[in-house]
């Protein structure tokens, strides 16, 4: 590190930012929101999200989906979509190895939206009736809602709520999927599965 700094500052007459510079493995450092990892099987390089990028999107999702959201669900989805489209537009260069992360972020967004919907429905009786209208069996809906006391956040991952407010419910209301957007932006990018097979992302 010292010899590199001497060369850059002495020969090239450039200033090295000591706080952002280090000699380390690529996967241990981040660059404009990314980190690199060498794939041992074929020697290729995966472009992955840095830890900081994951933390930032988690924080932003929480800001855009507050549990006290008082406007319509569609308004909330519109605000979330504006951010998600810009985010995946920048991070679409990530390798297929990050698809699991993108799917996890999609699931997290949907759960926070479910908590907002439950708050809009307010009463347990209303929640049960709405779930029944969405196709949940009546016995399951009533038992699930009245079985025990749960916070709205805990209830947002209740099996009956997951079944009623399924993925398609939010897709029909226009919610952007990071995983699906990545696939659309990377139609030629193959996805590797642990079994050893490769499939096209498209």
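^ structure tokens above, recovered residues below v
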């Amino acid at each position: 590190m010292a010899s590199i700094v001497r060369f850059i500052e002495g020969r090239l007459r450039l200033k090295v930012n000591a706080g952002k510079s280090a000699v380390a493995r690529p996967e241990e450092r981040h660059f404009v929101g990314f980190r690199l990892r060498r794939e041992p099987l074929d020697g290729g390089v995966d472009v992955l999200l840095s830890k900081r990028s994951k933390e930032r999107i988690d924080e932003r999702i929480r800001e855009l989906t507050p549990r006290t959201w008082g406007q319509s669900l569609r308004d909330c989805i519109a605000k979330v979509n504006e951010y998600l489209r810009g985010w995946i537009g920048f991070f679409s260069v990530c390798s297929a190895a990050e698809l699991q992360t993108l799917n996890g972020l999609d699931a997290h967004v949907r759960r926070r939206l479910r908590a907002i919907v439950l708050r809009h429905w307010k009463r347990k009786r209303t929640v049960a009736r709405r779930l029944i209208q969405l196709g949940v069996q009546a016995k399951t809906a009533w038992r699930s809602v009245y079985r025990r006391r749960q916070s709205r956040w805990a209830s947002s991952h209740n099996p009956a709520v997951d079944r009623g407010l399924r993925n398609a419910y939010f897709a029909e209301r226009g919610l952007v999927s990071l995983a699906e957007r990545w696939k659309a932006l990377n139609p030629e990018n193959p996805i590797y599965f642990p079994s050893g097979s490769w499939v096209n992302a498209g």
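Residues 51-200 form one domain.
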